[in-house]
Amino acid sequence: MPRRLQLTRRSVLASCAAFAAANLAPARAVLATAKLDPDWTTSLPPFRIAGDLFYVGSRDLASYLVATREGHILVNGNLATSPPQIRASVEKLGFHWSDLRILLISHAHYDHCAGSAQILKETGAKYMVMDADAASIQSGGKTDFHFGNHPEMLFPPAKVDRILGDGEQVQLGATTLTAHKTAGHTPGCTTWTLNTAVIPGHSEPSYKAIIVGSPNVLSSYNLVDDPKYPQMADDFRRQFATLKSLPCDLFLGAHGGYFNLLEKHTRLKANAANNPFLDPQGYHAYVAEREEAFEAELARQRKARAKG
Questions:
Q1: Residue 55: what pLDDT?
Q2: pLDDT by residue (tens digit) across 276-293?
Q3: What are phi and psi of 170, to 5 degrees?
Q4: Residue 281: CB partners within 8 Å, gap ≥ 6?
Q5: Distance, CA of 82 to CA of 62 (rounded, Å)
Q6: Could you list the residue range(s) of the whole structural domain that residue 97 is in?
Q7: Domain of 148: which CATH number?
Q8: C-alpha pair distances (Å), 163 with each of 109, 170, 171
Q9: How many independent structural domains does the chain possess?
């Protein structure tokens, strides 16, 4: 099974139903475990993906630094324990943590945003979040439609400085990121796109990068008639339409498992001239597989409801 389709998310719910793997086929249930996936907390040496875009996350929880002359943008603060790892990676690349100006996230789940409050406190960066996820961020997850009543899934609340809408842009210096609302996994799940900068002295051109928020249906989600999120299935379908419409050179995402991070990192180290993250075919195959999995799970749930 390709890495991107393997189980890459594990829950910290020790006694509740599974917080399903982000890349697991959604109809499949998994038992909850009290231990985090070690790839969530094990550091990966930071590296330049292309141009002004750098990887500063762990072996699976992805975090990205966009470096500009006017300061830096960070995408994803990850776990509450992640800020020291992310900071060490940023500084190992030669950048200053205090130069962080903007913090963005893929979606309001603890594994991508629990570290945000600490990062904001340390850097004074401005927090910018998609509209439908802003309340969850500011409540520490208490208003989340699915996990709000699970204490294990809550996180330190953080003030949102700018609420984003679908298609809005975040600009710092000459770099612009566009926020695409790809709802479903959360109501404000966000896929980010940007054109990487051309670095003087380097031969590589500018590339279109996509950081996928999440196209995954957790095994405990109710796609048919969730009273707190009745339009979930419609949102997922809109998400797939959006993802299929976006041009892609560099395929990235909120979890390394989406885009075979570890394998590609190894290949990049072996041959930096042939960037394996340039993978538009892999991107479209991943989106197609996730859409197929979503439709299969929706059909399964509808059939189960019809049987009563």
A1: 98
A2: 999 999 999 999 999 999
A3: -115, 120
A4: none
A5: 11
A6: 3-307
A7: 3.60.15.10
A8: 17, 11, 14
A9: 1
